[in-house]
Amino acid sequence: DTGVSQDPRHKITKRGQNVTFRCDPISEHNRLYWYRQTLGQGPEFLTYFQNEAQLEKSRLLSDRFSAERPKGSFSTLEIQRTEQGDSAMYLCASSLAGTAIYEQYFGPGTRLTVT
Amino acid sequence: QKEVEQDPGPLSVPEGAIVSLNCTYSNSAFQYFMWYRQYSRKGPELLMYTYSSGNKEDGRFTAQVDKSSKYISLFIRDSQPSDSATYLCAMSPPAGNKLTFGGGTRVLVKP
What we know:
Chain A is mainly β. Chain A has strands at 5-7, 10-13, 19-24, 31-37, 44-50, 53-57, 65-68, 75-79, 88-95, 105-106, 110-114.
């Protein structure tokens, strides 16, 4: 079992490079969320999907960020032309539509370091 | 100003003491109030949730919500070194799809 899994757990990249992260939700969960957590701060919502559809995006999700969930299962978050300010923990969570808001289950996160 | 404010700490207490944590918020639409625990380099895990006002107890944990003051609290009784972590409050309106978090309070329980 199978909680939410994220890959890689840690990514170090140079400024200007592109990076892609993957999230695998709990198997029966049809909602998937991305949050970003900078050092010493709480997670901030970026976007969420229900099945394949991206239903909400935060204004934090600049043009350099794109998230996909092509088959309604795993999701990818890509950051193009990374900047030092993108250094953060990227958290994925999943839930079943129709369940309570607190029934989002978080993965271990991908820690991005941009040098 | 952030919608949810939380003192960053660190809050250092001796083992066995009561840990008292709190958050204030500005959005009166929030009705779900959650507390998460986050160990270093891990994802948040849900400790407790409360809907609307009132108190809720679960083992050593007590959550309180005062909507009139826009203030929520979490108390941890008989604290243990394993309770050392960052505690995050999070909130949502009734039909919300996203969590709004406070900045987290780092707690250290010393043996």
